[in-house]
Amino acid sequence: MSIATTTFIAGIATIPWLLKFLFGPLTDYFIKYGRKPIILFGIIIGGVCLFPLGFINPIEQLFIFTLFLFISHLSCIIIDVSADAWAIQVSELHERGKISAAMTFGLFAGTAFGVALLTNIAQNFGFNISFIFAGFLILATVILPIIIKEIKKYKERQKIASLLLHEFKKKQTLLASIFGLSIMTNFGLLIFIIPEYMMNVLNLDVAQSGLITSLFPIGTIIGAVIGGIIADKYGRKKTLYLFLFPLIIFTGLLIFANTWQILTILYALIGLMQGGSIFAALFSLYMDITNPKIGASQYSLLTSISNIGSSLIPMISGTILIILGYTRYFLYAAWIIGPGLILLYFIIETKK
Questions:
Q1: Residue 329's domain is classified under what CATH number?
Q2: What is the C-alpha to C-alpha distance for residues 324 and 47, in angstroms, rounded to an integer?
Q3: Whole-model pTM?
């Protein structure tokens, strides 16, 4: 398959991350039952839908393959939205940076482990076995929400539409959502293209690419932990400035990544800066401006807007690359952060 087709199919599979705002109100509607039952439902469906991918040839049955991959991502959205709302519900302002860092640690530690392990399984035993194994990995996480006790805080259904409209009439909410879209576009432009660059320009095999790619989430984890601590101590905006300026520089320097050693260093540093800015400070900022009564609805809508940059842009990244070439592509990926920095100046933080 061509890079344009591959990124397009991968982009379709990740469209559910743009639809988080549809599932937020659903989880808030059943808020009196708690977040745990919805999380359990998402885990079961998400794991089961990966099993058929082990028996489908994507070249011969591309639609069916994409459909099951899409449903699996959709189930992950249900888990993600409910977990975010749960975190907002039980957290305080001064600890949300560290909570965002902890959630990012879980997300990207799993990503690093999965990329390194599943690409090796694919190389040695076939991609079909890696899909089946991934399904079992997801189902195994069902034990976690089962053993955690949830305290149901709200006894009645909330008036979701009116509360949500009220929150998004606020200037800070609108500014924060557009700012998030700007900096998440940097993430979206790189997420598919750098692994493709490893294989088609540097001529690395799938196992080597997987190993190098796993360094990106490791860098993201470290950045999120550092950024979460700084964000709680010194504020969200200062943390964002601290990490976004170097992110612009390291992204631009990708035009000089003509060896796997240079690319490895830059990719890890980009992960570090994205971890501190996007996955610690930005998501903490989102938590701060979210009304806990509609935590799933408002937070999922905020992240859905930013996920246009991280999910919709990757779908067309292969086509953009063909038009621009690698040099201009990487420079545009760095430039896109600039408008976000201007918007950040006008955002007023929530103080303790």
A1: 1.20.1250.20
A2: 38
A3: 0.73
